[in-house]
Amino acid sequence: MMWFILAIVFAIIAIMLHKSADKTEAKGGYSGSMPSVSVPKTPPKSFWEMYKGDNPSKASEIENLLKIDFSKLSDKDAKEKIASVNRFAKGLKCEISQIKVTYLAEVEKYPARLLPEMIASTLREQENEASTYHISKSNTMTALMTEWLRERHEQLGRPDAKVNAPSSDDEMEIVKALNPSVTEALDLNERLKTLRQMSILLKCPMRELRDYYINDVKKSYDGKYENFHYLPEAYKYMASKAFEVASSAGVKPVNTSYGIMCDWLADFMIEERERFIETCQAKCIMCGSRDIKLNFFKDHFVCKSCNHEFGGL
Ligand SMILES: [Zn+2]
Question: What Å distances lie between residue 55 and 28, 146, 286, CA to CA?
């Protein structure tokens, strides 16, 4: 289940934080208008380059979803894949960044033993979709479904042995470094188990998980004071999820992936709050004063002019 939980976490953050970015992006699809004056020495732009220029955030959502480098695709493949992703989003009535999570949430409604049948049926469906839309089978949305179903099948089939194996000293050092505030052996062991799962599912070495997560946050949150509130919002969401998933994960809420990510996010928020004070970006929401300090626990900003406390969890 952990992979699914993680997927939701990242998707939720991405959705929350991307929303504001999307608003500023030019509306309307790729119009294909060509510049009237051609410059002989520059090679013509590929379909993908033009699409990316017109829809930067949509383009990055598509790349993140498909995990492929579109600049290496032919115009035909890029065009077909983009069209399939758009059709998929429309069918699921969701944003592009949510497609995988939404689709897999549907899949979850059925017993896992049906996965091989589902894979066989999406494979068959690729033919129909390809001929209906006159596209290559590999560019269909059913090809994507097949890939994700196989991934899911593989995840479920993976023995827990790797996750529950005894820890090496090196590995424990990494767990401690990633969770500096945790000292209890029980907590460290539970976090080891969770971090192993995260590492497998995210295909990321354990020692790099924190950076991986913070980079993911930074991809969406632009570091502006006005957008800082997204971070405590994400924190609150993840903290409530930690309680929700703890029993099925078999660990304490603080030691679930949500709990661990909450810790990382909290540290990042503290750094951000300090930066806002240092750079005088923090501003009182009541009186507008920029004479702001951090309170004792560094959980809040406090206005020195009107004593209003704000911005905390
Ligand atoms: Zn004030």
Answer: 9, 27, 37
